[in-house]
């Protein structure tokens, strides 16, 4: 099956302003480090989640649980009002 044109097939990470291909392990490690840094600096003001009204109730529930219990923030919003 041909790959759709213009679709990413590998993660990209930023090195000094430029994007470069990376392994999934490296990309996930960087994402985890970013979450840890947000928690360390006060996630209540440095982290937020924007969920989608088209997602299931279960997915939105997990998003708010992650924000509140793991990240320690109440900064949660969705596009339900639009």
Automatic annotation (TrEMBL):
Top-level taxon of origin: Bacteria
Keyword field contains Metal-binding: yes
A Pfam family annotated for this UniProt entry: Molybdopterin
One Gene Ontology term, aspect cellular component: membrane
GO molecular function: iron-sulfur cluster binding; metal ion binding; NADH dehydrogenase activity
Keywords of this entry: Iron, Iron-sulfur, Metal-binding
SUPFAM superfamilies found in the cross-reference section: Formate dehydrogenase/DMSO reductase, domains 1-3
GO BP terms in the entry: respiratory electron transport chain
Residue stretches making up the Molybdopterin oxidoreductase domain: 7-81
Entry protein name: Molybdopterin oxidoreductase
């Amino acid at each position: 099956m041909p790959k759709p044109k213009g679709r990413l097939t590998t993660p990209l990470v930023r090195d000094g302003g430029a994007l470069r291909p990376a392994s999934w392990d490296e990309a996930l490690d960087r994402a985890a480090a970013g979450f840890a840094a947000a928690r360390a600096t006060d996630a209540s003001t440095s982290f937020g989640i924007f969920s989608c009204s088209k997602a299931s109730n279960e997915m939105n529930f997990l998003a708010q649980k992650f924000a509140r219990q793991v990240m320690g923030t109440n900064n949660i919003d969705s596009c339900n009002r639009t």
